[in-house]
Amino acid sequence: MTPITTYHPPITEVDNDTQVIYLWLSGLSPSTQKTYTRTVNQFLAFVEKPLAKVLLEDLTRWVDLLFLKDYSQNSIALKVSTIKSLFSYAWKIGYLSLNIAKAVKAPSGISALHERILEQPDVKALIAAAKPGRDLSLLTLIYATGLRATEALSINWRDLRPRKEGGQVTVTGKGGKIRTVLISQNLYQQLQQLPRSDKTEALFTTRFGNRLDRHQLHRIVKATAEKAGINEHTSTHWLRHAHACHSLENGCDIDVLMRSLGHSSLTVTSKYLHARPNEGSSQFINI
Question: Which fold is adopted by the domain 114-268?
């Protein structure tokens, strides 16, 4: 029988769960840290014991509880993967002598990407319904470039640069990775017309001059979607999905899309090919 793990000598002097969790979270984006922390707190409240005392049956009962509470399969998969990641990290640095979470299999998530893609007429309706100025420019930028919400909201004026044809914006993506995204001449000029604040360097600000945050952006998208009469579940990430699929449908090369979206591999980007295939073997069957 193959053992679950082998022993790793300690490479750190941390001696409690709080310090280990802090090291594990360091370097992740604020939104990811928040999500992971919520899951870990939920797990620790359930087991009521330190990580070193957690048994395999504790993990199994916790997963069973998630199913009983009617979490979606995608949510359960994310939560289990989060806890597995924590245990794996704690074992690798020598804090835990065994990685018992390795024996727990995360359930497969159910991809519903095809349900979260706006058709081009819906995108046009959304943008047409946006308030002129900040809201219109922000939604247009997210769709035109495929930026994540946090990436768009983190843009400062110094991140914008003109080009011979249009402009470019430098953004910081997941894991602190920096990339440059091209923007059209019309959109660049539209962004240049936004008011500047004395309180912050942020490109997108509130009426009080502070940087716009994710919650405020969420409300903007929901209100605009309602005004446009499109799917009430529309979000900024739906615009990112729409950008990806519409770009591919219009002839964009997948590796160009990968770099533009800030994906780490083509495997991640290729999910859009499966969500909206343009060709298949069924085209060769006459019936």
Answer: hpI Integrase; Chain A (1.10.443)
Q: How far apart are CA 235 and CA 215, in angstroms?
A: 11
d(CA 32, CA 34): 5
For the chain, give every domain's residue range: 17-103, 114-268
Q: Please, which residues have CB within 8 angstroms of residue 149's CB and are 6 or more apart in sequence?
A: 142, 214, 217, 236, 237
CATH class of the 17-103 domain in this structure: mainly alpha
Retrieve residue 84's tokens. Answer: 């597995």
> pLDDT (tens digit, 9 = 90+) per residue, 239-287?
988 888 888 888 888 888 888 888 877 766 776 665 555 544 333 444 4
**178 contacts 170 by C-beta, under 8 angstroms:** yes
Confidence band of 12 (pLDDT split at 50, 70, 90): low
CA distance 252 to 236: 21
Max CA distance (Å), the chain: 69
- Contact yes or no for 198/127 (Cβ under 8 A): no
